[in-house]
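Researcher: Can you fold this with nicotinamide-adenine-dinucleotide in place?
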Amino acid sequence: MRVLVTGGAGFIGGHLAEAFAGDGHDVVVLDNFDPYYDTRIKEHNVETGREAAAESDGSYDLVEGDVRDADLVDDLVADADSVYHQAAQAGVRTDYSPRKYDEVNVDGTLNVLDAARDHGVERLVFASSSSVYGKPRYLPYDEDHLTTPISPYGTSKLAGERYAMVYAERYGVPAVALRYFTVYGPRMRPNMAISNFVSRCLNGEPPVIYGDGTQTRDMTYVEDILAANRALLDTDAADGEVMNVGSTDNIDIETLATEIRDQLAPELELEYTDAYEVDADHSHADVSKASELIGYEPTYTIREGVEAFVEWYRANREWYEPLVRNS
Ligand code: NAD
């Protein structure tokens, strides 16, 4: 199968491209190497995808380009059987203007959807986010929970997701939106809590918590995200649906920092700094819908996922750590 992964040089897209190429598919990655974090991580992601293709019957092609370029997107989608649309200005905390989120995350998504409508694809998977929920009315969130995002990022993800669902309903595009809950794992974005906590502890520096650490998160190991995406290659059971994909193993940030500290540098005290306004207080996924429709079951507890990440971090410390510490 020919699979287009937009944003495929990024963290999650890189894992998808690697997995699909390793499974023997012909993978095309579209990515503009946006420099909002160190692009050397993206070069490693691309390398990993190429290696996976070399070891299988699959192939891997990189197209350096922009999802805002409608003609380019049209050409690439025309040749694809399935599309995994991961390209985005990611992250609630980046201080880009709302227009950047809008141009990349909404207009870029419309380019992908238009092309999918015009050429037909077997599946179009849109990477959405738990940030579409905003402040919780109840936890864990199911997909019927009110969506009132509190950041430009969350707002743009909600718009992209709604467009995907409208294209599914009006034009029959086989679109699925997955609401990811804080994803972590090898080659993760350097500016996230787990990579920072691990890096600081291994360097004898206290982990720094934004706010009082009572915020809770479903931290989802990237292998579980992969499993949900892989399942969608082979089933139309979730077409036209939005689904939560989280870990369900909820943890508060102070406990997370404490556990990493206890494991790596027990002598350190935790440090606290100002909270970010756009950070959600709590996020917690009810994944029953994904479980019912595509058999999704998270397999990594936070403890297991963090252990796996730390093992990978130690093995890749030489190249990865400087990029985390400069982020
Ligand atoms: P990432 O930043 O590592 O990956 C996004 C990729 O998109 C990057 O490689 C970037 O260069 C590329 N990109 C950005 N703008 C582009 C453009 N205009 N044209 C082409 N490529 C462009 O982020 P990630 O963590 O891998 O996130 C992947 C997707 O999952 C995103 O859509 C994000 O919104 C979503 N998501 C991620 C998380 C998480 O915790 N990592 C949580 C919820 C949702």
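Model: Folded with nicotinamide-adenine-dinucleotide in place. Residues 98-119 form the longest helix (22 residues).
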